From TrEMBL:
UniProt name for this protein: 3-phenylpropionate/trans-cinnamate dioxygenase ferredoxin reductase subunit
SUPFAM superfamilies named among the record's database cross-references: FAD/NAD(P)-binding domain, FAD/NAD-linked reductases, dimerisation (C-terminal) domain
InterPro entries on file: FAD-oxidoreductase/Apoptosis, FAD/NAD-bd_sf, FAD/NAD-binding_dom, FAD/NAD-linked_Rdtase_dimer_sf, Reductase_C
Coiled-coil intervals, chain numbering: none
Organism: Pusillimonas noertemannii
A Pfam family that the UniProt record links to this protein: Pyr_redox_2
Taxonomic lineage: Bacteria, Pseudomonadati, Pseudomonadota, Betaproteobacteria, Burkholderiales
Ranges of residues in domain FAD/NAD(P)-binding: 6-306
Length: 422
């Protein structure tokens, strides 16, 4: 074991919880301090826009990343409701909002990010909502329970999940998006069209290619004017226009940030530009072969980077990060994405993409030449699992064979793997 005897983790979210569990699993018995500015022990954020938002208060699902006594049982000093206000890499010390100072041999920045604010909109007005934290989810849930209508700004994954949950609660929903199609940066046009039809079938209205020319907050709700002249009136507005990575500490400590995406630059071992400081999760920017520097905002990325960073801090080899994977649940569909989209992919389809199908099941596979790089699976998680090693290994496929549903995906993938092996 290396000479590391004290580790400070800044942030008490997904990456923080996985990192400290890994440290103890690896046999590290030194001091671990986790400092989080929220009042809650680390919790899973994906349910915030799904089960937590839809829940009746008394039945809110448990979303803790670790069981209640995990931190005390494993000798981890968890300090909640406390912010790390400054980091001094030269002396390897952090100052906390309660005035205390924590020295470290290694520090992990797991600071995540905050919902991007809409300029000019009073953030704490009662009709204005953002969704990043448990407290914000509870506030939005209470408001949706009393609302007849909501305007959601942003038709990304989060905005659409909120729209879907709000519809399931009987709220009239309008979704406003500046781009000409939903999820335009990450899915092909045919997928956007299918999803947009699904949104419409739920009773929500999508306003695509619209900028907001005016946003008023009268006492009884919101008034949103669109560039096409439409004026939407609703009881509340939810702004879901992306994430700003929390990098203030990193910046003031002089760490290198990515100029394009604003994330903390880390290498494959999650090391920052300071030898003692590592970073993991939504706050990071990392190089991905074939894509350049990316800031991945996903549950899986937070877990993988946390595991790798923890091992690297101890000088232990860790298996490399798993192939990127993401899921979303919306409009009665489970949508999973394997790999990352990139320019120039040609998508082939397996299964039916009929918008009228109430229980769709299909996979779209993005090919670079004959090599699959990106897969989108709707209600087809089992098939996607079978396909995973094909994508991981970059094996060529024949589009007709992939689309032929008379062969199971498991058998098709198995045959491809066997022929590659032999
Ligand atoms: C509503 C919602 C739904 C989602 N759904 C999905 C999904 O379906 N699938 C998926 O793959 N991903 C989903 N995600 C994304 C996923 O939850 C995140 O990628 C993941 O939580 C990132 O973990 P993290 O540890 O990097 O950051 P976080 O979990 O955000 O934790 C960071 C913590 O650090 C704290 N902090 C920041 N600065 C300081 C400081 N200076 N001092 C102390 N504490 C600080 C923050 O307040 C926060 O508590 C969703 C996210 C949200 C918000």
């Amino acid at each position: 074991m290396s000479a590391v005897s004290s580790i400070l983790v800044v942030g008490a979210g997904q990456a923080a919880a996985v990192a400290v569990a890994t440290l103890r699993d690896q046999g590290f018995d030194g001091r671990i301090t986790v400092v989080g500015d929220e009042a809650h022990a680390p919790y899973e954020r994906p349910p915030l826009s799904k089960a937590v938002l839809a829940a009746v208060e008394a039945d809110e699902p448990g979303i803790s990343v670790k069981e209640e006594d995990f931190f005390s049982a494993r000798g981890i000093d968890l300090r909640l409701g406390t912010e790390v206000v400054s980091l001094d890499p030269a002396s390897a010390q952090a100052t906390l909002s309660d005035g205390s100072i924590v020295a470290y041999d290694r520090c992990l920045l797991a600071t995540g990010g905050a919902a991007r604010r809409l300029p000019g909109l009073t953030p704490d007005a009662p009709q204005v909502h953002y969704l990043r934290t448990l407290d914000e989810a509870r506030r939005l849930r209470n408001a949706l329970r009393q609302a007849r209508s909501a305007v959601i700004i942003g038709a990304g994954f989060l905005g659409l999940e909120i729209a879907s949950t709000a519809r399931s609660m009987g709220v009239e929903v309008s979704v406003v998006e500046t781009a000409s199609r939903a999820l335009g940066r990450v899915v092909p046009e045919a997928f956007s069209n299918w999803l947009q039809a699904r949104v419409a079938a739920s009773g929500a209205t999508l306003y695509l290619g619209q900028s907001i020319t005016d946003l008023q907050l009268p006492a009884d709700g919101v008034r949103v004017s669109l560039s096409d002249g439409n004026v939407l009136q609703a009881d509340l507005v939810v702004v879901a226009v992306g994430l700003v990575p929390s990098t203030a500490l990193a910046q003031s400590a002089g760490l290198q940030l990515n100029a394009a995406n604003g994330g903390i630059e880390v290498d494959a071992l999650c090391r920052s530009s300071d030898a003692r400081i590592y970073a993991a999760g939504d706050c990071t920017s990392q190089h991905h072969e074939g894509h350049g520097a990316l800031r991945l905002e996903s549950w899986q990325n937070a877990n993988e980077q946390a595991r790798i960073a923890a091992c690297a801090m101890l000088g232990v080899d860790a298996p490399p990060a798993a192939f990127p994977w993401f899921w979303t649940d919306q409009f009665d569909c489970n949508i999973q994405m394997l790999g990352l989209p990139r320019a120039g992919l040609h998508y082939v389809l397996r299964g039916g993409i009929d918008p009228a199908d109430a229980s769709p099941k299909f996979i779209m596979l993005g090919l670079q030449g004959s090599v699959p790089r990106h897969a989108l699976a709707v209600n087809a998680g089992g098939d996607l699992r079978a396909l995973r090693p094909v994508l991981e290994r970059g094996l060529s496929i024949d589009a007709a064979g992939f689309s032929d549903t008379s062969t199971t995906m498991k058998a098709y993938a198995k045959a491809l793997l066997a022929s590659a092996a032999g």
